[in-house]
Design a protein that fits this description.
alpha+beta, Pnp Oxidase, Chain A, seven-stranded antiparallel beta sheet
């Protein structure tokens, strides 16, 4: 009999679909004193990887320059039997080139706003100043989908 953990694990396709359907995630970096810094972020997807962008002086950017380890959490559901989630642990590849940051910004904007290409270009050009991006390079992915269980709590 499979373990409960094995029963709720999502397939790679389910994980990809779940990430593709979301707009925001919880992003954790490590503060200088070792405590977690946790924020909600909009994200984009480029070449199958989660990307973010932020002000270069933000706490998360300061933390990632010092320590590239990162964790992302995407979740849904309000009742136990509906809970779904994906946790991604990995490293952030920082992006500082303004043209590359612009591409990351556009990926994030496209997921979260209905904008035409001209508006995307304008927003990204203005926003890429004093900003950096990060590409999440996963080292471990954990998932759960309680809708696969035939129980109620």
């Amino acid at each position: 009999m499979p373990s409960r953990r094995d029963m709720i694990r999502m397939t790679e396709e389910e994980v990809e679909s779940f990430i593709g359907a979301g707009k925001s995630l919880q992003l954790a970096t490590i503060n200088g004193d070792g405590t977690p810094h946790l924020v909600t972020m909009w994200y984009g997807i480029l070449e199958g990887k989660i990307v973010i962008e932020t002000f270069e002086k933000s706490q998360k950017a300061v933390n990632l320059r010092r320590d590239p380890r990162i964790a992302c959490l995407l979740e849904s559901g309000t009742e136990y039997a509906e809970l779904k989630g994906v946790q991604i642990n990995g490293n952030a590849q920082l992006v500082t080139d303004p043209a590359e940051v612009t591409e990351l910004m556009k990926a994030v904007l496209r997921r979260n706003h209905e904008m035409d290409e001209a508006m995307l270009e304008m927003a990204a050009a203005q926003g890429s100043k004093k900003r950096i991006g990060a590409i999440v390079e996963p080292t471990k992915v954990v998932s759960w989908d309680h809708t696969k269980l035939d129980v109620s709590y």
